[in-house]
Amino acid sequence: MAALNNLTEHLEAFVDVTRSPTHHAESLKAIATSLEKGVLSINQLVVEMDMYLTTTDDVVRARGILLLAEMLDYLKSKPLDNAVVHSLVGFFTAKLAEWRSVRGALSGCLALIKRKGVAGVVTAVDAEAVAKSMAQSIQVQSLALYDRKLCFELLECLLEQYPEAMINLGDLMVYATCEAIDGEKDPPCLMIAFHVVELLARLFPSPSGPVASEASDLFEFISCYFPLHYTHTKGDEASIPREDLSRGLSLAISSTPFFEPYAIPLLLEKLSSSLPVAKVDSLKCLKDCAVNYGVSRMKKHYKYLWPALKDALYASTKTDLSFGLESLTSPGFGMGEIHREAVNLLQRLVKQDISFLGLVVEDIRVNMVFDTISRYSRYEEMLDTSKLEVLVVSQILSVSARSSVESCNIIFETFFSRLMNTLGIVEKTSTGDLVHNEISTVSTRLYHGGLHLCIELLTTSKDLIPSSEECTSTPESAQQSWCSIVSRFSASLIEAFTSAVQSSNDDCSADAYLGVKGLLAMGMFRGGSSPVSRSEFEKILTTLTSIITANSAKTVKWELALKALVCMGSFIDRYSESEKAMSYMAIVVENLVSLVRSSHCSLPHPMILEATSEVCSTRPTYVEKMVEGFEEAFCSSFSDFCVNGNFKSIENCSQLLECVTNKLLPRLTEIDGLEKSLVHFAISMWNQIESSVVFSYDFNGREFVEAAMKTMGEIVGVASVDSQNSIIQKAYNVISSSTLPAMESIPLTVAALEGLQRDLSTRDELILSLFASVIIGASPKASIPDVKSLVHLFLVSFLKGYIRAAQALGSMINKLGTGSGGTNISTDCSLEEACDIIFHESDSSKTICGSETFLGKICLGFCGSLDHQTRAITGLAWIGKGLLMRGDKRVNEIALVLMECLKSTNSSGNALHPSTMKHAADAFLTLMSDSEVCLNRKFHAVIRPLYKQRFFSITVPILESLIVNSQTPLSRTMLHVALAHVVSNVPVTVILDNTKKLLPVILEGLSVLSVDSVHKETLFSLLLVLSGTLTDIKGQQSVSDNAHRIIECLVKLTSYPHLMVVRETAIQCLATLLELPHGRIYPFRREVLQAVTKALDDPKRRVREEAIKCRQAWTSISSRSTPF
Amino acid sequence: MVSGLINENPTVYERKERRVRTDSSNNDEYSVEPIDQLEIFDILLLQLHHIRDIRDPEHPYSLEQLKVLTEDSVEVDDGKSYVRVTFTPTVEHCSMATIIGLSVRVKLMRSLPSRYKIDIRVAPGSHATEAALNKQLNDKERVAAALENPNLVEMVDECLSPSFE
Predict the structure, then answer these.
(1) Which of A297, A500, A659, A979 shows its CA 20 to 30 Å from the CA of A196?
(2) Smallest Cα–Cα separation from A772: which of A800, A798, A739, A737?
């Protein structure tokens, strides 16, 4: 009973039009829930609603009916009694005639008609009644948008679900549809209307049916929308995109062949229009029509269709054919949308009806092209019209050929021999020899136009070769005659293309381009039925390879040939052509790899490497072969250098290593088994270094060491833990056999370090750097032997000035296990122990890491030379970074030492050297920034979240107080540099939380740093921090408070002479400041405008552009009449 | 105000492919990039592109599409601090020509360094009162006077306000 009481309430609420829509929705929801739960049955509801449904108050009645309809929509999937459905549909059908309640009636009918698959569906008789009532009593176009949409949906639903009933109605439905569509302008309604037309066409396919008899009227109603054009494009995002609607229209137009007499002339007319949209739409629609109307109906129009299509192709083709590298695998000229659609249509027509090809073959313009071709030999000599002829005709012929095997045969039979004649390419006799003309001096004539046409034909025809599995299913008799034509000419074709490439010189890339493209086309025929024999295929490979090996400079020809080879390689891999793969391996891969191995060839080394790595990456087997070759090449060149002192060899080595790092490592995930080969490569690098005991020549090859370090580090970085372990072990063995262990015994005292005057030998230096790289790349899980002595070794070597050692030490500290229960059981040394060694105090056995430690003392200049001081600072920074990233507390002490170095004097009153201070300031950059060379994700660093934030909160307060108390300008500048490094590397959210405190010091920093051009990069990063705070809502208050200082500072920076981006950013910041309250910034307008006006004459264009925008913005506030 | 369209059916030209500035990988901080033709054209086009001599939203063409301004119509000499812009009204008696000319002048005055001398001209033979127009557009006093007329300033500012298309 309670439910019923509520019901009346809800009903009242819904019927009352003065209430808000949310109110309505709520009551609707409440009733629907009780219906769904079964508290209320639909019968009860109808009985309860009796008064609302029959009252004479039109508004209430309309609302009542709408409510009932909405309920039915909710209950779409709930089983209902058939009798109920019948009576309800009867009710709604009757109400359709009553215009006041038409919305409710329509929604009700729609909700009932949509029911399917559940108990209680509308019977066909009832559906017929609905349709009849609708057709007779509703004037669709007089309704509102939403109601019109309902009408179309109802029509669509009726046609889809009750086809038989609708067929009974016959003419009536067609009339109703015509009437409904007439004058419709809204995309959502039209979308459904077009579908309705399609459904009608499907329902009445008979030539004596209502659609056939009414075709002309129906077509008139829909054709007036063609081509679709939206007059109101904006502000209607929810609406249907033009493309969809245009597709719907196209489907409607092509839906029935009865439209054909009207549609095709219309479309042809629109195709000749100058509007691009009309052209594209007509071409798309013509294609749909060709599919649906059938060949016999389309045939009548061929003689109009073909010229129109041809014109569209001519008009949409541009004549600038590109002979560049990128177009080797593409058509070589830009394709507009019109062009693409025209091509699609042509292909469709030829595929559907081979007789259309007759028009193409007999076309005068198509046939004329052979004269055009033979008139010019070079493409650039051609007139634009001739270029157009050649391009369009090649396009027409190749598209037609692509359509089907049959059309391909016809095209080749008609044109290919003629083309070959024009080009002077001769046939092969049955014996395989070339037929020579009487005058044997007649050589092939390399007409560019002809070559282009020929290549287009060959390229398209290759897609027609069935793949091996299809081949077995098609009978041999259907074998392609075009294939035999091509194979008759193949030998001479290859020869012609080869000669085109060879005759080309540097200033003309067209010859080389066409030649290589032709060879590529010939080489890309698939499978056993290819018209190109194996020996001919091998000849192509040989030619291309010889182009690569013969050129000593990187010409266009060289690059083209390389790209062609890579294309062929990946083509072979894609279709797994084992025979061709063998030829490729033998001719291309082995040739190139042997070139890499032999150090004596005319080709510059980097070019061989590039070619080899490109070509070999197409297939895993080639990669294996290549890495083997690289390994051998490395070993031989390296030993050649060691023994004979050949500097050329060491240069080759570094180029080879660069190639491995840049070309191979990035593709590790794509190529299977590459990791294994690379690990092998790394180990043989160590072997080679181990075996060359004596370097008879000193080498100043910094380049080689750098390259070797990079390669080694990256290989270790990507290798699995097991492989890492084997590399580490190998490296450790090498290091123990060198003289380096001697350094481990050096005690950490200044005297001992001073005594170690002699630098490391070249070999030791190489070994040390490489070993450091291995350690840097190793993951925390890898086991490192004898950590304690290694720590000592690195410690001594970075004090000797080897930064790589400091980085390795930092990495090691970062990854070591903590204490006995650490992550790593295999190492024999814990973090504590390692730190003990590093930070051991000079006189007592207590371990702290502050300024009392040996390192700290060197840093602060208590002992050791200036060199030692700066090295110790840099080293300490790397160690600190390792500790910081893993979240170790000891970094705080290190930071304190570093900050101590920034003061102008140390605790004993001695002045610190400027270079010490500079290194200390830079140490903060090392600590905070993300490093490329070590301690990053790639090298498996242990990274605690928020480590930067933590460091920020520790150091910034101290730095700030130091700045306040700084004694000399230099110390002040250096403190600012350090602070800038910290501030600009921390995530911007942290800055925003502390804007109030930071802003003054950032501004001061900006003005201090702008004095000297040395700090320009730091200045820029600090300025970026400032600009970040300006735009954010969090920082706005303090920005507003400091507006005068910010503007003053930015105005100064607009004329900063040393870095363009600084000026640009400063001006952008000034423009951003306009978001502040008007009263706050208005006083500064004169100052800002003056500065920006000066910037209009800036030497750099980007600054001027910003200045114009900024000036415009600031001018507008000064002339605004109302201040706020 | 004129009622109706001055030019009901303007010829619309295809937008010419913009000359892309070849970024000459100019890494030298201290080298000078002089103001050139393209830069002036950009200044004018970026913000002027909804001045139309038609006020009908059905024809939202830019000055470039109507060939009122082209890149070649800008002559500039950075060394001599001189720029001349020649524009072509779409019809001979276009009454908007003064507003376009004035807007171009104001835009350049606001965007170029003060050392520049700006010369605005109507293309020869493109306007009925060509000589008068040229004189009016280049007369300092008259330009200044025009800019003191609040109605005119409002029209110019409307033309120059950044459009949000």
Answers:
(1) A297
(2) A798
pLDDT, one tens digit per residue, over B2-29 is 445 566 666 666 655 656 666 555 567 7
Q: Which fold has domain B37-160?
A: GMP Synthetase; Chain A, domain 3 (3.30.300)
Chain B nearest CA to A326, separation (Å) = 20
Q: Is the bond preceding residue B57 a cis peptide, omega within 30 degrees?
A: no
- Give A225 to chain B, closest Cα distance, Å: 19
CB atoms within 10 A of CB A827: 23
Reported ipTM: 0.86
Residue-wise DSSP of A313-348: HHHH-------SGGGGGS-SS---HHHHHHHHHHHH
CB A88, CB A53: distance < 8 Å? no
- Return the closest-CA partner of residue A561 out of A600, A509, A526: A509
User: Nearest CA to A128 among A158, A100, A106, A151?
Assistant: A158
Interface test with B, best of A233, A316, A1056, A1097 (most B CBs within 10 A): A1097
Residue A881: which pLDDT band, with cuts at 50, 70 and 90? Answer: very high
CB–CB of A1111 and B110 under 8 A? yes
Range of the domain at A121: 1-169
Closest C-alpha among B86, B62, B71, B88 to residue B19: B71
Sheet with B117-122, strands from edge to edge, namely B74-77, B82-87, B117-122
pTM of the model: 0.70
- The verdict on a CB contact (< 8 Å) between A1099 and B31 is yes
How many domains, in total, are found in chain A? 3
| β pairing state of B82-87 and B117-122 | parallel
Rg (CA), chain B: 16
Residues counted in chain B? 165
Considering the domain boundaries, does residue A9 fall inside one? Answer: yes
Residue of higher predicted confidence among A827 and A304 = A304
Tell me whether A889 touches chain B (CB under 8 Å): no
**Which residues from B are below 8 Å from A1100, CB to CB?**
33
**Distance in angstroms (rounded) separating the CA atoms of residues B111 and B105:** 10
Q: Do A1100 and B111 touch (CB under 8 A)?
A: no
Gap from B92 CA to chain A (nearest CA, Å): 27
